[in-house]
Every structure is written in C-alpha cells, then in structure tokens.
Amino acid sequence: MSDFIENQVQSLLAGQALEIDDTHNVHVLANDTTDVKSGQLTSHIPICLKTVTYIVAAVVINDQGEMLMMQEAKASCSGKWYLPAGRVEKNEDLLSAVKREVLEETGLVLAPTTLILAECANGTWFRFVFTGNIVGGNLKTPDQANEESLQACWVRNINDLPLRSNDIIYLLDRGKSYVLNKTVPQHPQLMPVIKSHAKLLLRLIVTSKKRATNRLHVLLSDTERYDLPTCEINPNRSLLSTLHSFMTEIFGNDVAQHKPHGLLSVEFSSGQGGDGLCLTLLVSFKLPLEDVPIIGKYIWHELSENIAEALEARLPRNMTVPLKVVR
C-alpha cells in the first residue's frame, strides 16, 4: 500500500493526472442523494456550454510591467476593456482555449507557462486563469477590429481604462504577484492535464501530523485500494459548501479547524469520455491527528520522509494555485 500511495501523492505534487482510475470510489455526500437512490452520485451530467461553463483568461505581463488588455466589440459592452478571455468550446482543452482567445482578441500568440488561479461559482461555472509569454503575432489595431474585439494594447495602469467589469482586478493582482514579485516563493508551474471524467469531482489531500512521532500523514479511504478522498462537486451549491459537507461526513459536525490551501492538480476531460473535471485540493489540520477523530470510513497513512517533506513545502502561502469560490 505504501508505494501505491506515495506514487499517487508524488504524481499530484507534480501536477500530473493519476494513472489509476480512482473515480469508482467517489464518496457520495448525504445531501447530494435527494434526487437519486442512496449511495449513487447525482444525476447531473456536465455538458460543456450547456450544463457546465468553463472560462479561460490570460494575465500577460511584458518586460516593462505592462498588462495585455483588449477592447470589447460586443454590443452590451462595446468600447470597454477586459482581459483576453472566453468560453471553452466543446471538445477543447484549456490550453488550446486560452491560446485561441488571446490570438482572436489581441492578435498575439501566447505560450502559456502556468495556471495562476481557478475560480468556481455554484458548482457548474469554472474560470481558469493563466499567465505566459508572447512568442509571436502582431498586436491588434483598430483597423483590424472584428466581432472578437476592437483592438488590444499594453497598459501600465488599468485605472486609465473603462473596464467591462471590476472582477478582473483580482485576476490582475494575482498575475502581478506571481510574475513580478520575485522575492516571494511561488507555486511551481502547473498545467491542466487531460484525463477523462464524466463528473465534476473534488479530490482531497488532507494532512495532519502525529503527535507521538511528528510525522506527516495523509487521509485515505478505508477500502480495498486505499484511495485519496474524492467526492462529486454538488452542481447546485458552492464548492465551499461541498467541501464543508465532505469534511463533516469524514470528521463529524465538530470537525477541527482546517485550512484549504489551494490546488495541486487539475484534470480536465476536454470532451474525452465526458466534459467533467477533477480538482485536487490540499487541506491541512494544525492539530495533531490524535485530536482529529474520524467518523467515516477513512484512515491516516504515514508518509515517507521524502514525500512528507515535498508535501509540507506546498503548505505555505502561494505554494498552491489559489482556488477562489465566487459564490
């Protein structure tokens, strides 16, 4: 069991997809079975552009500290400014989508380097924000205006522009923090990986130290194969509500204080075997595991020193990709 778990954790720390299929052991939340037989997942099937919405956006900053912006052409917001962004199309992967949007709206060719932020609303709306480098193309000018955008430009101060929405201010601040602040350690580069998922899933790496040994442990399902805890994201509730329900069913209503840190990996179907995804979220308890009673069918597993050290290195601020729950 030890090698199997160590390999899983190591893969997720590297932002990779798990080679094994761990979705057969998805935990069914009690509140999610109202419309189906007990013990089954919800009837919600994520279908891109219909029952689930995926958005990509790019925060691109040049060597002069200027940010890439585009001027909207849509009638509802014509003339306003926004980041290059748009919906992921059917059977499209996230990287292809963000490169397409940047090219269509700014005329520039983007080489994405990492995911810097993920956002979720109501369990069926996800926005993935990337940064990267411009490797080609020509900046779109007003005489090249079309239905995608009126023009694009590099901007030092976005306060000089009328914005389509202020929601991008947080995205821009996150991008500047990652790209420009070289004095603060940041998470390793993370790219979404393509893996078939028919559902919207949340996988947890939950950690706590044992008081007696001071060794780091991770939580596993107490089943034949000992998988990491995974549940379906409720399509009708916020992701934080799903997380709270999951933790409560594992640890009880008096679950000890814990901290969701951020994402370690993103698995995205891209239409291959469904339009679902799986987000791997790192969660830690400050209390020792002796003070964190488990009521569900889960157990603690002690990690080797090397894997424990690598996992602990991802616990500080900025060492995982932030997951922001919008609503």
UniProtKB/TrEMBL annotation:
Residues 51-176 form the Nudix hydrolase domain. GO terms for molecular function: 8-oxo-dGDP phosphatase activity; 8-oxo-GDP phosphatase activity; metal ion binding. The keyword Manganese applies. The keyword Magnesium applies. Pfam families: NUDIX (PF00293). Keywords: Hydrolase, Magnesium, Manganese, Metal-binding. Transmembrane segments: none annotated. It comes from the Eukaryota. Its cofactor is Mg(2+); Mn(2+). Belongs to the Nudix hydrolase family. This is Nucleoside diphosphate-linked moiety X motif 18. It comes from Harpegnathos saltator (Jerdon's jumping ant). The lineage of its organism: Eukaryota, Metazoa, Ecdysozoa, Arthropoda, Hexapoda.
